[in-house]
Amino acid sequence: xxxxxxxxxxxxxxxxxxxxxxxxxxxxxxxxxxxxxxxxxxxxxxxxxxxxxxxxxxxxxxxxxxxxxxxxxxxxxxxxxxxxxxxxxxxxxxxxxxxxxxxxxxxxxxxxxxxxxxxxxxxxxxxxxxxxxx
Length: 134
Fold this sequence. Notes:
This protein is an all-alpha fold. The chain has 2 domains: 1-89, no CATH class; 90-134. Helices cover 75% and strands 0% of the residues. The protein contains 5 helices and no strands. α1 packs across α3. The radius of gyration is 17 Å and the shape is globular.
């Protein structure tokens, strides 16, 4: 049940962050804004790690497959595309399209068993739900 509420919080925070980032971009430009987002996220993570974590950074070298380490690169792309889509479409329409794309791609990842995710069988109910969302 906690996962349900965490997912709702994540969605709400993503929408708020997108609006904030878009406003910062109006003053700074998209690359400075994106760099600020990534830098401030790093600062928060390091602060939390310092007080609560202390996992070894050396564990990064043991991550396999290595392409899994591209999450930060993808995150920079996500920040840029959210800023641009919210700027051009507005927060509501951009968020709707972003969530629809997330649902479709996440389901395709499950169906194909990509990136180490357990392969799931096709469920027409889920396909119908996505078609309805479109």
